[in-house]
Amino acid sequence: MSGPGAFTPGQVRLGDRVLWQGVTHQVVAFRGSDVVLLAEETSTPVEVLYAAMVSTPDFAVLDGEGSPVVLNPMPVLDVPVSKAERKKAKRWHRHMKELDTGLLPGSSRARPGYEPGETTLAQRYACKSREFAATGVEISAKTLESMRLKWKRAGENPLVLIERRPREVGHRTDSRVIEIMREVVMDHGRGSGVDIQTIWEEVLDVVQDRFKEELEDPQEAQRLLLKRATFYRRMEDTGLAEYLAAPTKRRAQQASKPLPPYRPSHALRPGEVVQIDTSPLKVRALGDNAEVISAELTSAIDVASRSNCAVMVVPVVTGEGSPGKRIGGRATRAYDLVLLLAQCFAPLAWRPHWDPLALAANSALPYEDLRDADERFARAVAARPVIHPRTVIIDQGSPYLSEHFKYVCEMLDITIEYARKDTPTDKPLKERFFRTMGSRFSQHVVGWTGKGFAHRGLGVDKGPLYPINTLQDLAEQWVALDYQQRPHKGLRSPFTPGLVLSPNEMYAQLMPMAGYRPRPITAAEAHEMLIPAWVKISDKGITIENRTYQSTDRRMRLLIEQRSGINEHNDRFKARYNPYHPEVAYLFDHLYTQEWIEVEFIHRNLLDDQWTQDLWERGTAAVVDSGGRKDDQLAIVKAVQALRRSLRQGPGRAGKAAPMVPFQGLELSAEPEPVMDPYAGVAIDVEAVTAYPALPIAGREIHRPPAIDDADAP
Questions:
Q1: Contact at 8 Å (CB) between 525 and 413?
Q2: Which pTM value belongs to this model?
Q3: Helix H segments across 333-427?
Q4: Rounded distance, CA 538 to CA 557, Å?
Q5: For 524-556, b where at least 16 C-beta lie within 10 A, e where not — what string?
Q6: In terms of DSSP H, where are the helices of 22-82?
Q7: Are strands 542-544 and 285-286 parallel, antiparallel or unpaired?
Q8: Cβ neighbours of residue 91 under 8 Å, at least 6 residues apart?
Q9: Contact 144, 123 (CB under 8 A)
Q10: Could you tell me the pLDDT band of residue 179, with boundaries at 50, 70 and 90?
Q11: Residue 685 and residue 689: Cα distance in Å, rounded?
Q12: Which one, of 297, 280, 662, 660, lies nearest residue 449 by Cα?
């Protein structure tokens, strides 16, 4: 009786012939929820519950020839109907039934204003409209008439009254034109606002340029070349007109979104998907110049095991110099992200001042299996697994969008997926990790600034504070000791789902299924990870970041005034340098040996202490502010020396770092091992013990003065 789209309540009417319990009956009356049936063979009336009658397996409504009637033969909706929509449809069915017959389903007496034979359909429409108005719903008699006719044409199926078919975007406009409209509008996402007339002209230009051959056909030309009025309607229908009228900031955010569909992160193997993000550490520290600075933390979280693959603490420093010409500003850069990726390919070294529980050998990691597969685990390594990222989900900050970071990811076979802008739900694990680190690490570190400026403590900047390098050490120790070894509510064992696991335990569960293969960074890859620079080679050497590098290597002398043959870089040679160790750089020989040549900064001997690119930029800013030239390398070296001398003086009394208190680690509930007596159970007869024969030892020679003859005596 029922099928896809069928709607059974109220389908039985007075006078219908029905088949019930193998006997043909006629419906003669309705009494509340009961129905009165009259058997045709015996003329015996039977009163039965309506719901029980229609639920009988052999029940059917018969036509004039005695054949079962198929109720609602065609489905009305192509999608499943929710319970709320079906409930709403039942209410509308009662209204439509009363308008059509004058009786509510299951009722044998008509309400006033709906008497069959005494009222017309128009009068019932008006009465029903007044009834709706009394409840606060405005619906006209004409609308009720249209709804009833639609209901009747659908076989009295009220689902058609609640159907909400999605309107097709673009209507009958060619989909190719709609795509060009989106393309042109998105090109203006980050620019100044323009009107729809300009968009229409640009769309016509693109269509005429892209479909030259198709436009020769008059029918194709009619489909592709929209009239202005039609174009304006399509802009409204597709929402592009509203997007075009939005402020520039909102349009830029929309244009920055990756292509749909968006999907949550899901992974079954370690490294399959890794989320990377940067956030303020909310801990004040001492910078390289002993001044109080802020810090940023960048980390990578494995989706499958929730393990922290790498962590990087970077200082945040405002540049020096006049506005618009600031030099030496510092925050997370593309090279810091590259170092973060490099950490993912090597075990984390354990430090002697760390807690022993932070050792991989003392953790839940499958240490013996990892040691057999990777000889690097034979050394003292921390309890953090080595996870090679296959796909990274990152935001759209400038360091992540840099060509250098993309190049390194491509070299390491890492796929990049960009999260939507201002959408933290695309990286939920990273957002949760930052909150966890704030509650379990940052607020326990001296220099904690609180969750916001309103919650910042008084005198935080006056110290004592940790140096920035110490914060990196503390963060790595916390990851290996606390985060990786504490149970995570979101981690369940694939074999015993009721067991809550720590990230290290989850990795131990997944590693046998996915396997582990060491993948160390090679020497060639290490060079490619350094910051690139394209240089010309002269008799003075090469220039990188306003520094001259030279080498006594014969290979470099052969490249002087030569062309590399790389046209896209104007025949320049490729060079690489490390901003944390800029005293040396590397030049690649494209012509002869195809090898790297190590070159040195020409004033390297004047800078005995360690220095960085940031220190060089601050020295450059000091020279420029004092009226010097930006390319005066010797003056910059002297400025760097002065900065180094000020650093050696150390911070003031209020800025001295507090003594570092190492983590105490988790409680270890283990019984002390008993002291074993090596002579237990051994019987010794003291009388039978004899002395060991002594070995002859040569005596020491004594030097005496020669004897004096009596004759020689005075």
A1: no
A2: 0.55
A3: 334-343, 367-373, 403-411
A4: 9
A5: eeeebbbbebbbbbeeebbbbeebbbebeeeeb
A6: 50-54
A7: unpaired
A8: none
A9: no
A10: confident
A11: 7
A12: 280
Rounding to the nearest 10 degrees, give the CA dihedral for residues 529, 533, 534, 540: -120
Neighbours of 124 (CB within 10 A): 24
Q: How far, in Å, CA of 37 to CA of 30, rounded?
A: 9
pLDDT digits 0-9 by tens, 564-619: 888 888 889 999 998 888 889 999 988 888 889 999 998 888 887 677 887 888 78
Is the peptide bond prior to 261 cis by the omega test (within 30 degrees of 0)?
Answer: yes
Amino acid occupying residue 458: L
The answer to whether the CB of 15 falls within 8 A of the CB of 26 is yes
Report whether 344 contacts 387 (CB < 8 A).
yes
Structure tokens at 349: 């070294």
Token pair recorded at residue 455 = 């919650």
257: its two tokens: 């979104």
CA dihedral 370, 373, 374, 379 (to 10 degrees): 50
Measured distance CA(227)–CA(116) in Å, rounded: 54
* Separation of alpha carbons 190 and 247, rounded Å: 10
Which three-class secondary structure state does DSSP give residue 286?
A: strand
Q: Any idea what the Cα angle at residue 392 is, between residues 391 and 395, rounded to 5°? A: 150
What's the average model confidence in pLDDT over 529-542?
90
Q: Cα–chain-centroid distance for residue 63? A: 63
Instruction: Lowest mean pLDDT of 397-411, 430-444, 582-596, 642-656, name the range.
Output: 642-656
In whole angstroms, give the CA distance from residue 361 to residue 347.
13
Q: Which residue's entry shows tokens 């932070």? A: 358
Beta strands in 243-335 (DSSP E): 274-280, 285-286, 292-302, 308-316
Cα(427)–Cα(156) distance, integer angstroms: 49
Q: What is the 3-state secondary structure (H, E, C) of 644-709?
A: HHHHHCCCCHHHCCCCCCCCCCCCCCCCCCCCCCCCCCCCCCHHHCCCCCCCCCCCCCCCCCCCCC
Q: Rounded distance, CA 225 to CA 208, Å?
A: 8
φ/ψ of 127, rounded to 5, equals -65, -40
In 3D space, the residue among 455, 464, 586 whose CA is nearest the CA of residue 526 turns out to be 586
Length of the chain: 714
